[in-house]
């Protein structure tokens, strides 16, 4: 199909105080990011984690960087080791670090230095229920979230679980950054609809960059 929008330039959409969507920001870097995802997953494979409540998550996950987000029977935690391989998570690929830095700068967070990148892989029907990102030690650092491949509906609410939700379609290359007053806003992903994307096939991928450790 002829893609009439192939040349479109990124643009910004304000989302909430401290939060912005950088539309198409990661699109040009898509192939390099996908290649880096494959390399990370070759060392620390995608796996469906089990919540402390015993529920198997529909999203498959892996991590790169000094710390990785994971689960165990007691809760959610950041660990320097991949529990599946008992080895450190793969290092943050250069393409990831560069994109994250550029996005954080564009969103007004030039100081952001992520030490963790959670990689989410959504197959048809996979979803992420409404949650807050609150396992990080220093909540002054923002979240940088990169969407690749199939589109998905992102829900973005407020500080309370039952605050009204915005529903936004996130497409290939869109980057959402939230921090400051919206750092703890509830968010989630509605079940992925079937489709095929030229770069990612049947999947949607999401990279979530965080500063997990307290740097002080
Ligand atoms: C997340 O909240 O960790 C992921 C959000 C997304 O997949 O866009
Ligand atoms: Fe999240």
From TrEMBL:
- Fe2OG dioxygenase domain location: 113-213
Alphabetized SUPFAM superfamilies for the sequence: Clavaminate synthase-like
Q: What class of enzyme is it?
A: oxidoreductase
Q: Which cofactor does it need?
A: Fe(2+)
User: Which InterPro entries does the record cross-reference, listed alphabetically?
Assistant: Alkb (IPR004574), AlkB-like (IPR027450), AlkB-like_sf (IPR037151), Oxoglu/Fe-dep_dioxygenase_dom (IPR005123)
Q: List UniProt keywords, sorted A-Z.
A: Dioxygenase, Iron, Metal-binding, Oxidoreductase
One example of the protein's molecular function in GO is:
broad specificity oxidative DNA demethylase activity
Which NCBIfam families is this protein grouped with?
PRK15401.1
The protein's name in its UniProt record: DNA oxidative demethylase AlkB
């Amino acid at each position: 199909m002829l893609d009439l929008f192939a040349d479109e330039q990124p643009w910004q959409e304000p989302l909430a105080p401290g939060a912005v969507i950088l539309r198409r920001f990661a699109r040009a870097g898509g192939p390099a990011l996908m290649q880096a995802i494959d390399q990370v997953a070759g060392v620390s494979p995608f796996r469906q984690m089990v919540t402390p409540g015993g529920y198997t998550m529909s999203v498959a996950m892996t991590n790169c960087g000094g710390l990785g987000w994971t689960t165990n029977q007691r809760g959610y935690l950041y660990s320097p080791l991949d529990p599946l391989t008992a080895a450190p998570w793969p290092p943050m690929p250069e393409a990831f670090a560069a994109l994250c830095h550029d996005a954080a700068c564009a969103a007004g967070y030039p100081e952001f230095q992520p030490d963790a990148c959670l990689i989410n892989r959504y197959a048809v029907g996979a979803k992420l229920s409404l949650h807050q990102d609150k396992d990080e030690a220093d909540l002054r650092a923002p979240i940088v979230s990169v969407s690749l491949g199939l589109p998905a509906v992102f829900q973005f609410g407020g500080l309370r679980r039952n605050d009204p939700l915005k529903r936004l379609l996130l497409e290939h290359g869109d980057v959402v950054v939230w921090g400051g007053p919206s750092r703890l806003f509830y968010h989630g992903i509605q079940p992925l609809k079937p489709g095929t994307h030229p770069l990612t096939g049947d999947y949607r991928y999401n990279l979530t960059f965080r500063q997990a450790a307290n740097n002080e």
